[in-house]
Write a structure and sequence with these properties.
The protein is an all-alpha fold. It has one domain. Helices cover 81% and strands 0% of the residues. The protein is built from 18 helices and no strands. Helix 2 runs antiparallel to helix 3. The longest helix is centred in the first third of the chain and has 53 residues. The protein is globular and about 60 Å long.
Length: 446
Amino acid sequence: MLSRLKFSKSFLKNIKWQLVANLGHALFGGIFILYLGRALGAETFGIYSILVAGAAIFGLLIEFRMQEVVATNLFDITETDPANHPTIWTRIAHFYAIDLASRLVTSALLLALMGLVLGFMDLEDDYRYELVLAAAAYLTTRATSDVSMGMFRVLDRIDLSAMLISAAWILRILFVVAIATLGNLTLAAVFWVTILVGLGITILRVAVIFAQTARICGPWRGGYLAPTALPATIRDNRRLLAANLGLSVSDMMSKDLDIVVLSSAAPPDQVGVYKIIKTIAYMVWRVIDPLIVVAVPEVQKVWKRQNAAELRQFLRNLALAAGGAILVCVLIAWAGTWLVILPYLGDDYAAILTYLPLGMIWLVVCAPLIWSHALAMAIGRPEWNFYTMAAGSAAALAFLFFFVEELQILAAIIAWSLAFILGFCCLAVLTARRAFNLLRTTSAPS
């Protein structure tokens, strides 16, 4: 489909490699989760899901989405005047520092509030050690990763990103399977595998980024760090950082806050079933997610040309590509769950087939609207991402809190879908109206 629509060669190249990266993430990440679901059993897997969700929620408290910050600042890095190369290196170093600092702060906050977190998630103090490991696993896998992903995008080396993502999941699968074969698979063992693999891949990823950047901007020098200039970097990006921070907080509902809330009202085995449903839906979303990731710099370029017809055609092509792909993938996912996944997982997960169709409705609604996020950034309204997602998440969270005791897993599925649908629909309407109104104003005769 993409080849028949009118996109630039660089856009198609990046889409294809981002698709490889996301398919690797979806395939190997899905295999990892499904294997854990079977190896640990529904109840223990549910506890694993709750601990991971607790760590992830705290991580989102200070999540700047640095991938987008990098793409916005350095989308033309390959065309930059050599005189500006030291400034580019400084910005890269500052972006890494901001990302790492935010991860460390949220990890420390989780550890400080560990007792309260375990109590809310209805877990005993016996799981303190596992929660510490969950926090460490989140830190080692997420620290600096967003900046590196953004750099791979602007350097047109998404192929390297794809290989590293797949390598990380494959290593985690191999180590966990090996431990399970020896009969020693515990929650702690799973987290230790994640920590060690995450740390190794993170270091390798940063090293590759520095090597690739050196080919364009010359070798890294210690003086480029320029810590005194860090406040200026933050100030120059304060609107985008603030918008992304708010967006991440509001995005908690569509991430793992629903699992945390569900764990307070439902037994762990139901939480495990819900986690598998989310995993399957996200595996499907990963197919069109590359369009969102690569669209940010591409929409910036199209918007810069101030051509309403070109912008309209580009957004229409994105909607058609995403909508068509998601419909096919939803049908494949439903059939695959019925024929393969459920027989593999066993009777403890039989409820998946009942709830999965409802859990995938948001995919069909939101996929054709994936352009709205990139367009909001292009027209200088990144905060709209926050406002719309916050509104959707607030409505969904209110629904979940009100109905979770009565409906349990059904309430979580409805709330999760509601957060996405309201956020995407509101953002699409706002950004499209604003963009084309601006273009009509600028093209009108004086």
